[in-house]
Amino acid sequence: ALKPGANLHELEKKRQGKVQKRICQVVLEHFEKQYTAELGDAWSRVRDVLTSPWCWQHALLLNRFSQSPGLESSLAEQGYQPAFPAALPYLPAAFRCYSRPAPGRFPAQKHQPGRLKDYYLLNAASLLPVLALEAEDGEDVLDLCAAPGGKSVAILQCACPGHFHCNEYDDLRSRWLEQTIESFIPGPLMNLIRISKLDGRQIGDLQPEFYDKVLVDAPCSNDRSWLFSADPQQALLRLMQRKELSSLQFQLLRSAVKALRPGGSLVYSTCTLSKAENSDVINLILNSCRNVMPVDISGMARGVSQEFTFLSGMQQHELLVLPERGRAWGPMYVAKLKKVSSA
């Protein structure tokens, strides 16, 4: 803690100290080899951003359930602008997100029981899966891997589902999810929300053909945070176990397909650049589930092409956000599928 009377120079030094995280060399070497092969020339620009936390940006998703007069004008004064253009295929009026080109983050709000927060701080790219999902009022919606809860909160900024099921298998993360929901959603709406700690791989069998929309924001290699693993041994273990993630992701997706009603759609997302956890998993589902079809999301990608940089050469049903200077959002992979009939 800083001593009373600490000057601004000390405060700045403390802030810089926090920013100067140490890059984990074993992870960087692993990524270097894989992503040079998968991304080509784009990798050096992406690496430049991922290894420079001082150039990272944060967006604010405003909470439509809290009254915060003056917040939007205050954001405008500080250079914040709407993060998403109005010309998107799906952008509900109540959905308000702000960002600015300058790095740094707006002050976070502390959790206070009984008091709703005014905004959620996030990586703007993490809202693309929610906009791709296109939840509508009255629909039955499942967020299969919901913690820490940012995407669940974002879905509720877009629509008022008839039934909203937020699931998180991990005990600690589930408590985090509960606190997030409690911080953003008013009491009366809580009756529409079910929070569970089920194994996501089993929900399709437990609730077959129950949901209109399913979001699978899958456990993945979190490239941004893995690069700053404090413990090299843990980092090595993660890299060894990384190969098993695509199997888990495939099982979660298969469960999501079972949980969908015919005609319903699902969005799959990760925050990794890894092809094995992205396109490969989606292709496996498309090849093994005959009742699933890809859904074109290129209209959304075109609509936000000024705000985000995408990897070229992707299929129309998928996109991959690449972080770059001034647009340091992502990594974020998004794919959309539709269930056309019962199995």
TrEMBL record:
<dbReference type="GO" id="GO:0003723">
    <property type="term" value="F:RNA binding"/>
</dbReference>
<keyword id="KW-0489">Methyltransferase</keyword>
<dbReference type="InterPro" id="IPR049560">
    <property type="entry name" value="MeTrfase_RsmB-F_NOP2_cat"/>
</dbReference>
<dbReference type="GO" id="GO:0031167">
    <property type="term" value="P:rRNA methylation"/>
</dbReference>
<comment type="similarity">
    <text>Belongs to the class I-like SAM-binding methyltransferase superfamily. RsmB/NOP family.</text>
</comment>
<dbReference type="InterPro" id="IPR001678">
    <property type="entry name" value="MeTrfase_RsmB-F_NOP2_dom"/>
</dbReference>
<keyword id="KW-0808">Transferase</keyword>
<feature type="active site" description="Nucleophile">
    <location>
        <position position="271"/>
    </location>
</feature>
<feature type="binding site">
    <location>
        <position position="217"/>
    </location>
    <ligand>
        <name>S-adenosyl-L-methionine</name>
    </ligand>
</feature>
<dbReference type="InterPro" id="IPR023267">
    <property type="entry name" value="RCMT"/>
</dbReference>
<keyword id="KW-0694">RNA-binding</keyword>
<dbReference type="GO" id="GO:0005762">
    <property type="term" value="C:mitochondrial large ribosomal subunit"/>
</dbReference>
<feature type="domain" description="SAM-dependent MTase RsmB/NOP-type">
    <location>
        <begin position="48"/>
        <end position="340"/>
    </location>
</feature>
<keyword id="KW-0496">Mitochondrion</keyword>
<feature type="binding site">
    <location>
        <begin position="145"/>
        <end position="151"/>
    </location>
    <ligand>
        <name>S-adenosyl-L-methionine</name>
    </ligand>
</feature>
<protein>
    <submittedName>
        <fullName>NOP2/Sun RNA methyltransferase 3</fullName>
    </submittedName>
</protein>
<dbReference type="GO" id="GO:0008173">
    <property type="term" value="F:RNA methyltransferase activity"/>
</dbReference>
<dbReference type="Pfam" id="PF01189">
    <property type="entry name" value="Methyltr_RsmB-F"/>
</dbReference>
<keyword id="KW-0949">S-adenosyl-L-methionine</keyword>
<feature type="binding site">
    <location>
        <position position="168"/>
    </location>
    <ligand>
        <name>S-adenosyl-L-methionine</name>
    </ligand>
</feature>
<dbReference type="InterPro" id="IPR029063">
    <property type="entry name" value="SAM-dependent_MTases_sf"/>
</dbReference>
<feature type="binding site">
    <location>
        <position position="199"/>
    </location>
    <ligand>
        <name>S-adenosyl-L-methionine</name>
    </ligand>
</feature>
